[in-house]
Each structure stands twice: as structure tokens, then as C-alpha cells.
Amino acid sequence: MTRVVLIVAGGIAAYKAPDLVRKLIAVGCEVQVVTTPAAAAFCTELSLATVSGRPVRQSLLDAAEEGRVGHIEIADWAQLVLVAPATADIMARAAAGMANDLATTILLATRAPVLWAPAMNTNMWSHAATQANLALLRERGAAFVGPDRGELACGWIGEGRMIDPPIIAAAARALVDRQPHPELVTPTRRSWVGRKLLVTAGPTRAFLDPVRFISNASTGEMGFGIAAAAAASGAEVVLVAGPVALPTPAGVRRVDVETGAQMLDACERELAGEDIDLVAMVAAVADLVPAEPSPGKLDKDRVLASLSDMRWRAEVDILATLAARHRPRTRFLGFAAQTVDTPPGADAGERLGAELRRLGRAKLERKGCDALFVNRVGVPGVGFGSPTNAGFMIFAEDAEAVDAGPPQPKLALAEWMLAQLEARWWPSGGGS
């Protein structure tokens, strides 16, 4: 079994700690719980000891344990140290290298991987000090899962909610097993330090009336994966997200939009403010929008008739518009989701790939971008709604496309994409 030291800090989310212990045990972990003094206000030692099967440790100067130098013994015992909830306070103390209680002493002494599950008020999470501590801990090799967006105990709605225990346990298992997980931000090479990225993700909505809209099946996972991978590699990342329920990746600044017009405006504001090295247009923008959407809610019996009578217009082409305005100062990566029928014959795979590459090349030239990733949709294992994806990376200056290989988790594919872009455009690393 994997030996996990679970550090429970003093936040309201500590009440979830017993459930988290159970979830960790269920994925094959043996759990030693360590609490900060403040955690006792939200969760009792008895409940944690009962579910973990081990006495809870809290005191740095425990006479019963320090004969064996207990705090170092725990740090050496761990194969993973998990901090959940990770409050702003314990993140700040760990970033400063403090060792003024058992929890921070273990964090300073352990050689095991450290996984943080942040939980705090949304203003505390977005504060420059917390984000600086986050970046410093990540630079030193820490991994992060969450936080989530939602209603917080303080009444605010936004980022800062501790991500759910089953997700934390799965991310912990993935980190130990060195496997990708969609919510896990792992330390990677810091080759994107100094670079600035703008990423769009998710669908947009074309409103028929104030409550009805047309959209598509994009989940946003691919774009969020690119944002997470770039931030973990040291980039400064802004994520313009359509209406999806995914948590914001650690270290990423998020701007939420609904419509294509709002997405274009948000991107223009970001590009006008400062130099952006790369824009990754991953969002699936609605192609058609009503020219004159109904100002009031349509009655049910009028919806179908209204659809046939409604005048439509093409939505603004965000990628082509931005590329025409901001290249070559900024590089643009586009995405193309294509349906391709499987041809008959023994060489079906080769011909399918050739058709995907042809469609991708045509779209790259039409959009005027620097590179484009083309993938197939409508089949299991790739595209919308799938945890995995595959396809080809096409560059404007090169006739040959690069095959990403068999379907792989979208976060892993995002890391592959960034490596391809880095090798082609910034082989020496570092910011502009």
C-alpha cells in the first residue's frame, strides 16, 4: 500500500477529511493523519483516528514520539504528503520555509512528493501573495489539485472551494503512479517561464431568446489542459472560458464568457494590454447566431415556428480576426474538429490520416494561423466529451504534419503540444 501523510489544516473544508481518508484507503493508500492546531475546530481527532486506523499526530514536541525524532520519522515514512485542505496560511508558511508546527516541519523535511488541495475564500485565493506562494511551491516541485469553483462557506461564489475528496484521492493515486489526471497539475520543466499565453476553451452559446440557446458538445477539457500544462511549465496564462463547470487550473487567471462576441471582446482586451507570446484558440465557437434574437421568452408552441422564420448570420471568426490583427507579434495555434468517414480497405488508417491532414491544412490557411491541431470527432476515444484525444499538429512553415500518436489523456496531449511548439518556435527556452 502507498504510505500517505495527510496534513489537515484549519479551514472549514477540514470537515471533509474523514471522507477523504476513506477515499484514499479505497484507492490503496495507508494514511497517517497530521493536523494543525486550528484543524481541531472543524474535525475531531477521534473521527480521523477511527477512519484511518492510526493515532492522529499534531504536536511537534510530543514526548512519547520525539525519542525517535517523530517528526522526521513521519517525513521519511511518507511516499506522498497530501495537504487538504491547504489554507492560505499553511501555503504561506511552507513557501517561507517555516517549521513552527508538526505539519510545516514535515513539509520541510520530507523527500516525498507533495500534493496540495487548496481551500479558502475566493479573494484570499486570488490575492497576489497567495498566487506568489503558489508559484513558488510549484517551482519547487509541488503538485496541485483544485481549487474548484462554487458557493463557499463564507457566502461568496467563486474559486476557492476544496475539490471533492474522490477527485483528490484519484489525483493522489495518479501522482504516485506517475499517470496523468485531468485535475492534477504536476511539476514539469520550467521551460515556459517568462512566456505569456492566452487560451480559449469550451463552447459558446447562440441565444434564441433570454433562456434558450444553441451550443455544442465541447467540455473545455482540452483547453483547460493546455492552460494547466502551460502554467505548470512556468507560463503566465489567461484562460477565456465558455460556459463549462471545470475548476480553474492552479496559477491560471480565468475570464468567463458565454457568447462568441464576448469571447472576442475578452481576447481583444488581453491582447491590447500587453505582449502575448501565444494564443491557443481551443474553444468551439458557435458557427451561426440569430440575427435578431427574441427579446422575450418564446412560448413553447412558438419555438419551432420561430426557428424556421428566424434570420441567421455567421458568428464572427474569432481566430481569423485576431490572427489578422495581431500576427506576427503574437503566434496563433488553432484547432479543427473534423468528421471523417473511415474508408474501406487495408490502408484505411493511412487514407483517413491523409484526409485529416488535408482538412487541417486547408483550415490553417483559411484562418491565417501559425499552427493548427486537427482531430477527428464522432468516434469513441477522441474529440468532444472524451477524456482522450489524438490528431496531427500542422505548422504553416512546414509541409509535414506531426502525428500525436494513439489517443491519450488530454492533459498529457496538452504537454505534448507545448513541447512541439517550444521545439519549433522557442528552442532556447525563456521569455521574449
TrEMBL record:
One of its GO terms (biological process) is pantothenate catabolic process. CTP binds at residues 287, 297, 335, 363, 367. Residues 193-421 form the DNA/pantothenate metabolism flavoprotein C-terminal domain. The keyword Lyase applies. The active site is at residue 154. InterPro entries: CoaB-like_sf (IPR035929), CoaBC (IPR005252), DNA/pantothenate-metab_flavo_C (IPR007085), Flavin_trans-like (IPR036551), Flavoprotein (IPR003382). GO terms for molecular function: FMN binding; metal ion binding; phosphopantothenate--cysteine ligase activity; phosphopantothenoylcysteine decarboxylase activity. One of its GO terms (cellular component) is phosphopantothenoylcysteine decarboxylase complex. Residues 197-432 are annotated as: Phosphopantothenate--cysteine ligase. It comes from the Bacteria. Pfam families: DFP, Flavoprotein. Pathway: Cofactor biosynthesis; coenzyme A biosynthesis; CoA from (R)-pantothenate: step 3/5; Cofactor biosynthesis; coenzyme A biosynthesis; CoA from (R)-pantothenate: step 2/5. Binds 1 FMN per subunit. Residues 3-137 form the Flavoprotein domain. NCBIfam families: coaBC_dfp. Catalyzes two steps in the biosynthesis of coenzyme A. In the first step cysteine is conjugated to 4'-phosphopantothenate to form 4-phosphopantothenoylcysteine, in the latter compound is decarboxylated to form 4'-phosphopantotheine. Catalyzes two sequential steps in the biosynthesis of coenzyme A. In the first step cysteine is conjugated to 4'-phosphopantothenate to form 4-phosphopantothenoylcysteine. In the second step the latter compound is decarboxylated to form 4'-phosphopantotheine. In the C-terminal section; belongs to the PPC synthetase family. This is Coenzyme A biosynthesis bifunctional protein CoaBC. It comes from Enhygromyxa salina.
